[in-house]
Design goal:
Layout: H1 7-25, E1 29-31, E2 34-37, E3 40-45, E4 51-54, E5 63-67, H2 69-79, E6 88-92, E7 95-99, E8 102-103, E9 108-112, E10 116-120, E11 129-130, E12 146-147, E13 151-154, E14 157-163, E15 166-169, H3 173-180, E16 192-195, E17 198-208, E18 215-218, E19 221-231, E20 248-258, E21 264-266, H4 271-277, E22 281-292, E23 297-301, E24 309-329, E25 337-358, E26 376-397, E27 404-416, E28 425-428, E29 430-438, E30 471-476
Parallel strand pairs: 4-6, 5-7, 6-9, 7-10, 8-13, 9-14, 10-15, 13-16, 14-17, 15-17, 16-18, 17-19, 19-20, 20-22, 21-23, 22-24, 23-24, 24-25, 25-26, 26-27, 26-28, 27-29
Antiparallel strand pairs: 1-2, 3-30, 11-12
The protein binds 2-acetamido-2-deoxy-beta-D-glucopyranose (7 copies).
Amino acid sequence: MELSTSPRKAQALEKVSVLVVLVLLGLSVVDGQRPRVWDYFEYSAISCRAHSAFLTDFGGVGDGTTLNTEAFKAAITHLSQFDSEGGSQLFVPPGRWLTGSFNLTSHFTLYLHRDAVLLASQDINEWPVVDPLPSYGRGRDTTGGRYISLIFGTNLTDVVVTGDNGTIDGQGALWWDKFHNRELQYTRPYLIEIMFSENIQISNLTLVNSPSWNVHPVYSSNIIVQGITILAPVRSPNTDGINPDSCINTRIEDCYIVSGDDCIAVKSGWDEYGITFGMPTKQLVIRRLTCISPTSAVIALGSEMSGGIQDVRAEDILAIDSESGVRIKTAIGRGGYVKDIYVRGMTMKTMKWAFWMTGNYGSHPDENYDPNALPVIQNINYRDMVAENVTMAARLEGIPGDPFMGICISNVTIELEKKAKKLTWNCSDISGISSGVVPLPCELLPDQGPENAVECNFPTESLPIENVEAQMCSSRSKYF
Ligand SMILES: *[C@@H]1O[C@H](CO)[C@@H](O)[C@H](O)[C@H]1NC(C)=O
Ligand SMILES: *[C@@H]1O[C@H](CO)[C@@H](O)[C@H](O)[C@H]1NC(C)=O
Ligand SMILES: *[C@@H]1O[C@H](CO)[C@@H](O)[C@H](O)[C@H]1NC(C)=O
Ligand SMILES: *[C@@H]1O[C@H](CO)[C@@H](O)[C@H](O)[C@H]1NC(C)=O
Ligand SMILES: *[C@@H]1O[C@H](CO)[C@@H](O)[C@H](O)[C@H]1NC(C)=O
Ligand SMILES: *[C@@H]1O[C@H](CO)[C@@H](O)[C@H](O)[C@H]1NC(C)=O
Ligand SMILES: *[C@@H]1O[C@H](CO)[C@@H](O)[C@H](O)[C@H]1NC(C)=O
């Protein structure tokens, strides 16, 4: 990935892309009996490709009922031969493309037309079972293995999954029912999982009805997730939006997420498995996010955080009808740490708790966790926020004998709902300071007074992933 710092060039590119989108709209032609011709694309990506193909070149049929798993496999196997010859891109034309799981390759772009819908197969035999993640020791739903994700990649470099807001539909209802009825033999699949990889872009797509988590980069670095719309019923189980897990240098921006679980859940492995694996999530940027999550958090840190979570910077967040804004979840036995967390510029409307921290989350992979493995929670900074219609300002519960330290909250105004609890801040086993916070926080976060007003920290130097510049890629190809 090229690292560069040229904001002017990026702005120029944005203008070009708007123009091109306008031109593109006129180019999908339906001409009598002839199949549609779709011949010019332009999109922004971390790298462009020399070779192109259409799914239809490999027998793909977009009628919503023909299974396309073999077409995807054949296409990607064929295109993988170009990985050292400028890379390749696979275009998915307008249509409804039923498919089982398939694997990505390196130096590769999967591009979905705005009218393309990938439909996840409802036949469980189409879903190979793979090993549990080494940092979890077991699947999240069941012990043992897990159904592979719909779009999966491992040990890759330079992969783009994008589209002009094309759709991936997980058809998750079948899986949610199996989960509720305890009929699952293995852990439910995710929509997109990229493992042990680097230089990844996932952008401009709509993901609907995932069986479980939506986007799961794990053990990876240099990841951009941008312009993703995620929609799932707000009561669907574990439909987390984007879960960076043991990942370094990640940027998540311009996403709109409505889901039945956390919109963003930052993770790094579970109890003794995560401690042994020892791979943190760090250098994570989250910005311009809109989240609706009535049963969960806008940004959750944990509960699986045993490899550590460090240097998370979140800003420009709009939270609507969610349980909590930022939520740190951990437990005795997790070990690891959550430190150097910075959040600013968050607007919250209708929340149960603006802030929630708990050291009492429980949820262990098995009984072999180490009761002496205590998590370290340190240097947590929240500032410049407004919240309205909140039931309780904050519930901050550290661990007795292992307090959460260095909490700083400044310039935050929380308007409580009419029927709000009398106790607005419920704090235990924490320490820190506050400044300019309404209502006045608990005694464990003493207000510094107007003379000693504090602005909680937010780093001024950017992370490397913030300076990665996209290129405009274009292609003229036809399919008949
Ligand atoms: C996503 O779409 C927007 C608007 O159409 C465009 O400006 C942006 O460049 C696209 N981003 C990527 C990474 O494709
Ligand atoms: C994808 O890769 C995984 C792990 O390498 C493998 O288990 C699975 O069978 C592959 N899937 C397909 C469709 O080839
Ligand atoms: C992928 O990379 C991991 C970590 O480097 C390694 O343990 C694993 O064997 C690799 N898998 C494959 C299929 O190459
Ligand atoms: C993408 O599609 C979704 C679902 O139809 C829609 O809500 C969203 O506004 C679209 N995004 C863009 C950038 O067009
Ligand atoms: C306080 O936060 C608001 C956003 O909620 C922001 O507009 C304002 O500039 C902040 N004030 C200071 C002094 O930083
Ligand atoms: C305030 O929150 C309550 C739930 O606590 C909700 O029922 C009500 O509709 C909200 N009011 C507004 C004005 O959003
Ligand atoms: C305050 O938090 C403690 C746990 O730290 C809990 O037991 C108690 O019920 C809470 N009180 C209220 C009023 O929510």
